[in-house]
Amino acid sequence: MKDTKKNKLFLFSAFVLAFFLATLILVVQRGIIQGQEEFVMNEPASRTVFSPVHVSFVDEEETARLREEKIAPILPVYTMNPKVKRSVTSNFEGAEIQEEMFRLLTLLSERFLNEGVLDDAAKKELMDSGRQKIHRYNPATEVGEEKEVKEILSLSEVKGKIGPVLDREKVKNQTLQNAVVEVFNQAIRPNLFFDETRTKEHLKAASDSVASVMEEVKRGEMIVQKGLLVDSKQLKRLMQVQKKMVEKEVRNRLFAIGIFVFLGLALSFLYLKQFQPKEFYSPRFITLVLSTLLMTLGIERISQIFPNSSLYLLPGSLAAVLLTILWGSSLGILGSLSITILSLPLTEFRLEIVLMLLLGSLISAFAARRVRKRIHFLKVGLAIGLMNVAVLVAFSLSQDWQFSEVLSLTQLAFANGFLTTTLAFFLVPLFESLFGLTTDITLLELSDLNHPLLKRMIVEAPGTYHHSLVVSTLAESACEAIGARALLARVGCYFHDIGKIARSEYFTENQTPQTSSRHEKLTPMMSSLVIMNHVKDGMELAKKYKLRDLIIRFIPEHQGTGVIYYFYKKALDQAAPGESVRADDFRYPGPKPQSRETAVALLADSTEAASRSLSQKELTPAGIRNLVRKIINEKFIDGQLDECDLTLKDLHKIQESFVHNLMAIFHTRVSYPAKEHDPNRPDIFGVDQFTKFRNP
């Protein structure tokens, strides 16, 4: 994949996201374990304590006490509502009353509403609370003043004072006086209400006027002395020093975790860029690696959250096991190194735990290389467990631990291996599904010759089926010789020619001597198109049967961009004088082999097909070797091997493997002499059958 800005942006984003997630996982913990209180108020101090840090803090209790003292005298604010007075006056103006009556009503409203009238319930509540004064605020004059509660009239008290006021006004007409009382009683309403907003403002202003009481504990200052009673102030100072120490510890821990996470991830990225350059810019590949590391880290953290959990059960080898099974040992070794660095904060930097994690992970990267069956997981768990025990025993000898302690810890260390592989057993299918990977476990399932596609091939294209089996044998042996994935090569070759099922009669391996070739009536170009189409048909068939991508790659890549030479030569022979025939018109669409396994499949396919044309005299070690060498040279010169990682040394090993297997396939046996017919013995097979019978 090209090194583009987009790819670099993805890598940077993945690094940053992984950094924050890993840091978050490591920071989260059960919390600071609180031990038994060492110092108890009014009890003698068990030891003398000097402050290791300088602490300056607010004495919250003293500050709160002073503020309470300050706000205690603050009176509740009651504000007069001017709308009430206007409403009452407007009722007078709208009524048909005499001028004298209007004057008296206005006088009464001015007399009472200007002073403020409380609701009966509000005044009762004030009196019951023991409140002697309130702060009365008149928004019309913007004047506030303290008033005795008893001096402020309630609505019922106002109604009781109307008569005396009218008497002072010397109202002699009893009818007029009764009318004024009746109208005023109906119109008057309370206009003095509790103002919560202004009350809070007054309280806040009073509280803010009190400065916070600051306390200071200097570094090295004695806080408590052994044997003396601990008072509340000393206990408070001790708690503040402890809080400062915890904050410092958390801050230092956070920085330490950040450094280790950065180093672990940086090492991973550098390793991948150096040793996995083709996959380094693949989002799927980077996501696989980071997801495995983060999941392992998360499981380690979860295992430590439970009470009574043990560091000896940290399943750190999980990353190496998963990466080895899913990708290979080289990635498993990376997982071992990276997870060891990332897990350092979880191990509490205990040397024996770190060594167990590192060496257990490394041994698992080697032990998990050949995991194909469920029983293999037990073998991997056994390898991890034994390595953990060996590390722990060696460490205990250097530390002179008690035998009973070593015995109990080695049991946990041994169980660690099986805990790790149990988790891996359930997680491997999940990762395979999420990232579209194919492990040897899945390949072994696909190697079953009862697969529906292979059963179709037996019936519809038996020659192709036999060809595929021979090619798979050649490819598997060659991949074993060069250290490639032999099982992948075998299974891939089972399915590499499934596209021939659709038009099996057009391929020579499915034709018999009694049938004529379907290509006799076709032009060379048309014949080559029919042959090429088996790649396209194979891809469609593979997707229909939901084969894995890793297997599907064998279908186009086993042909690469090679020329269908037979029909190209036939086109040249049939071309008119001056007519141009392009070799590129007879080439497969490709792509060229992208992996060592598909490249070996290409060589095995061509070699097996060419070996069918050898005469009996050419079926010798020298003849077979010449054929294999010729095929490999032709593919090399044609550039079909340019995009895979095969070396010249690999090609030599492949050649020798092909020669060895072809000699075994085409070996001849000594002919047995014909058995003479005995006329006195019954011929159960028919006339002269024994004389015709030969050992195959």
- State the end-to-end CA separation: 53 Å
Structural class: mainly alpha
Strand fraction band?
5-15%
Number of strands: 10
As for the number of domains, it is 3
Largest sheet: 4 strands, mixed
CATH class of the largest domain: Mainly Alpha
| Shape label | elongated
Description:
It is a single chain. The chain is mostly helical and 696 residues long. It has a four-stranded mixed sheet with strand order 6-5-3-8. A two-stranded antiparallel ribbon has the order 1-10. A two-stranded antiparallel ribbon has the order 2-9. The chain is elongated. The chain has three domains: 77-207, no CATH class; 276-437, Arp2/3 complex 21 kDa subunit ARPC3; 443-657, Hypothetical protein af1432 (Orthogonal Bundle). Helix 19 packs across helix 25, helix 20 packs across helix 25 and helix 21 (524-544) runs antiparallel to helix 24 (565-574). 33% of the residues are buried. It has helices at residues 5-27, 60-71, 82-94, 99-113, 120-129, 155-160, 162-168, 174-187, 196-208, 232-275, 283-305, 318-326, 329-342, 351-367, 374-399, 403-435, 440-446, 452-460, 462-482, 486-495, 524-544, 549-552, 554-557, 565-574, 596-611, 621-637, 648-665, 689-692; strands spanning 49-50, 55-58, 77-80, 117-118, 133-138, 143-148, 153-154, 192-194, 214-217, 222-224. A hairpin with a 4-residue loop joins strand 5 (133-138) and strand 6 (143-148).
